[in-house]
Design brief:
This protein is of the alpha/beta class and 515 residues long. It has 4 domains: 270 residues, TIM Barrel (Alpha-Beta Barrel), CATH 3.20.20; 31 residues, no CATH class; 60 residues; 110 residues, Alpha-isopropylmalate synthase LeuA, regulatory domain (Double Stranded RNA Binding Domain), CATH 3.30.160. Helices cover 40% and strands 20% of the residues. It contains 16 helices and 16 strands. The strands form 4 sheets. It has an 8-stranded parallel barrel, surrounded by 9 helices. Helix 5 runs parallel beside helix 6 and helix 7 runs parallel beside helix 8. The radius of gyration is 24 Å and the shape is globular. The structure holds 3-methyl-2-oxobutanoic acid and zinc ion. The site of zinc ion has 6 residues, from loops.
Length: 515
């Protein structure tokens, strides 16, 4: 690759998915992976296969079906992890094993209980094994920024000698300052052989993930690890869209470019927000709803005269087009599939049928549907499991007094229809209580988020809930023209998910080192 190209390594489906409360289904993971391929990320980290059976299956599915990016999977530097990663990845066109171990004193002593020599030996053995499966091996020194420099350089030297072709410098706890991180990357770059790519992986605990990644680029890093909307452990990872547009807008100042199709940025951001339930703050750089809004009269006047007076990026460059009306009440299945195709969304026949049926229901109530409505409908549908145990037939509100709202739900389970009612503090609370009764599933509402998909009084309401069910966090999403119905759908989707097998999440590996 030319020396001025920085590779974009996307970890939305691995580190991003480790954000609290996110648990994507396999279908959602594949959908996001396909969108990342359309965005043309260079490397797509699909997951951590050893962490669970569901995670393994999701990585395998992505490896066999998604074309374009190099597909990567995470593995500790242990035999079991590396074999599992190789097994999950082997159907991919091009694949990478990303193997790691902690190298800081605090992690080695208190978490791994390993000596310096044991860590060095583990790196040598692990990377050698990974390199026996593929010649594309990345090694990460977890907590690199709090690692003693000479030891860190020794770890990287051993990893490269054993076959690593990318060495990654994670600021795992988001502690580094840009000037410190830049200096560290510069030292690692100087010591590494030329063919080895130096990478950054920055967390955002102090809000410095993007700044640190840029400092890395300026000092020779040619891979940045990022996540869509900056999601990830704790305060998250370096945000993909920010790095993408900084490099696109200020590439000359940085001396680098990337190969992303930035026109897919908005769509990717929306898909990830919808499926994860992590909505984007309105003033978020690049993808926030207000990022291109001009409120003051002076700014509006300037932009009307010449967009560049107050805009440094063209909204079209990130795919922020007007919300186009794509379908109406009479549109048929063919037009529906065609509209999805134009949005770059391809569904398997079963999900297409379900999404079309849902579209028809909504089209009866909303005369015109836009591309954002379609994306919302699809994301609600693919969020559903293979076989939802309960299906919402109807929600009837009223019957209680003004102060004691009441709701009745009808849920279908196989051939049977269950009816239950409940009172609540408000209609939404009542509906949730009725669903708990009908499904016989006690749940605690952890978070509730409502937004509208588009503007206008007939806009679809978009509700994302997070529930704690039997010690497990599950999310659900519902869209409807009525916000009570959207809430019922979201709540039931979460309950259905809790009643299914554990999702394809990566949160079940709790040991930093297998004992
Ligand atoms: O933050 C971190 O150190 C990681 C590594 C596994 C790369 O996510
Ligand atoms: Zn990380």
């Amino acid at each position: 690759m030319p020396d001025d190209v920085v590779r974009i390594f996307d970890t939305t489906l691995r580190d991003g998915e480790q954000a609290p409360g996110i648990a994507l289904t396999k279908a959602e993971k594949v959908e996001i992976a396909e969108q990342l391929a359309r965005l043309r990320v260079d490397v797509l980290e699909a997951g951590f296969p050893i962490s669970s059976e569901g995670e393994f299956e999701a990585v395998r599915e992505i490896a066999t079906s998604v074309r374009g990016p190099v597909i990567a999977a995470l593995a500790r530097v242990t035999t079991g992890d590396i074999e599992r990663a190789a097994e999950a990845l082997k159907g991919a066109e091009r694949w990478r094993i990303h193997t790691f171990i902690s190298t800081s004193q605090i992690h080695m002593q208190d978490m791994l209980r390993m000596s310096h020599q044991q860590v060095i030996d583990a790196i040598r053995e692990g990377v050698t094994l990974a390199a026996s499966y593929t010649d594309d091996v990345e090694f990460s020194a977890q907590d690199a920024t709090r690692t003693e420099l000479d030891f860190l350089l020794e770890c990287f030297r051993v990893a490269v000698e054993a076959g690593a072709t990318t060495i990654n410098v994670p600021d795992t706890v988001g502690y580094a300052m840009p000037h410190e991180f830049g200096e560290l990357v510069s030292t690692v770059r100087e010591r590494a052989p030329e063919h080895v790519v130096v990478s950054t992986h920055c967390h955002n605990d102090l809000g410095l993930a993007v700044a640190n990644s840029l400092a890395g680029i300026v000092n020779g890093a040619r891979q940045v690890e990022v996540a869509v909307n900056g999601i990830g452990e704790r305060a998250g990872n370096c945000s993909l869209e920010e790095v993408a547009m900084i490099v696109r807008t200020r590439g000359q100042a940085l001396g680098v470019r990337h190969g992303l199709n930035t026109r897919e940025i908005v769509r990717t951001s929306r898909l990830v927000a919808m499926t994860t339930g992590y909505s984007v703050q309105p003033n978020k750089a690049v993808v926030g709803a207000s990022a291109f809004a001009h409120e003051s009269g002076i700014h509006q006047h300037g932009v009307l005269a010449n967009r560049a007076t107050y805009e440094i990026m063209d909204p079209l460059e990130i795919g922020l087009e007007g919300n186009r009306i794509v379908l109406g009440t009479h549109s048929g299945r063919h037009a529906f599939a065609d509209a999805l195709d134009k949005l770059g969304i391809r569904l398997d026949p079963e999900h297409l049928d379900r999404a079309f049926a849902r579209f028809k229901e909504l089209a009866d109530r909303k005369i015109q549907l836009t591309d954002q409505d379609l994306q919302a409908i699809v994301s609600e549908e693919i969020g559903g499991g293979e076989e939802d145990l309960f299906v919402l037939e109807s929600v009837v509100v009223g019957g209680g007094t003004h102060l004691e709202p009441r709701a009745t739900v009808h849920l279908r389970r196989g051939d049977e229809v269950v009816e239950e009612s409940a009172m609540g503090d408000g209609l939404i609370d009542a509906v949730m209580g009725a669903i708990q009764r009908a499904t016989g599933t006690p749940a605690t509402l952890v978070s509730f988020n409502v937004s509208s998909v588009t503007g206008g009084s007939d806009a679809l309401g978009d509700v994302v809930v997070q529930l704690a069910v039997d010690g497990r966090r599950v999310t659900g999403r519902g869209v409807a023209t009525d916000v009570v119905e959207a809430s019922a759908r979201a709540y039931l989707a979460a309950i259905n998910r809790a009643l299914q097998a554990p999702p394809a999440g990566s949160k079940r590996t709790t040991e930093a080192w297998p004992s």
